[in-house]
Write a structure and sequence with these properties.
This protein is mainly α and 272 residues long. The chain has twelve helices and no strands. The protein folds into two domains: 143 residues, Cyclin-like (Cyclin A, domain 1), CATH 1.10.472; 111 residues, Cyclin-like (Cyclin A, domain 1, Orthogonal Bundle). The longest helix has 29 residues. The chain is elongated and about 65 Å long. It starts with a helix and ends with a helix.
Length: 272
Amino acid sequence: MNPSEPVATETLSSKMKDVIDVLAMQREKRNSLQKSVTIDYTNVNDTFTVARFIFECGFKLDAHPLTIATAATLYHRFIREATPQGYDVYLIASTCLYLAGKIKDDVLKIRDVMNVAENTLHRGSQPLELGEQYWAIRDAMVQAELLIMRMLKFQVVSTHPHKYLLHYLRSLQAWFGEDEWSKYPVAKTSLALLQDFHHSPAVLDYPPNFIAIACINLALQIYGVVVPLMDECDQLPWFNVYCKELTREKLWEIMEKIMMAYDQEPETRDSC
């Protein structure tokens, strides 16, 4: 092992400590404000806010978390291929949610998606009647679905970090032991971090297994939890047991990207 590596790791850890503390406070603040904060989507259309729109609509439709994650991924991929200024981003977002339901076999009726999207954009609006506006929006969504499919070259099925995350968490639970594992909400926090990371297009930049490990490691850092028995592994990082090719530097890079996503939250931006 390079003699300088432990020093480099210690430097990274000390550098990130304050940021991790801030992240924990941001998540606590977000949880307390989540029910009271209402975004006026008609006045803002940045990437984070549109992704949040997808999540809000998905929750209202009782969509599966993987369906919502798929929709967010589709949207980020589309925006990378297109010029956002040339499209109605909320129409594209709604269509991504509808398309994701088909991909994940989590059927979301187009009329339900339309009504939820309209009510989320225009708070307090009534369900769409079967009239000119209804058919215009429906036709626009059908055309948008074809556009998204063409822009993504019909490659709309992807591997999500979720399956890796659940596998690693189950393994770590056995590694820690039931009593020790139950002391900290590592699993719940890891899943929440993964969900929140889908608000950022950076979720497209890394392999899904890398992202899963980064979410777990960030949760461990937040609660100051150390994976047991690592002293007996010749300082082999715990994550290399699951993924040999993941380096410490790449892991911290992904963790920083996850934390940067929180800087884009409206309440975070307003408080800066």
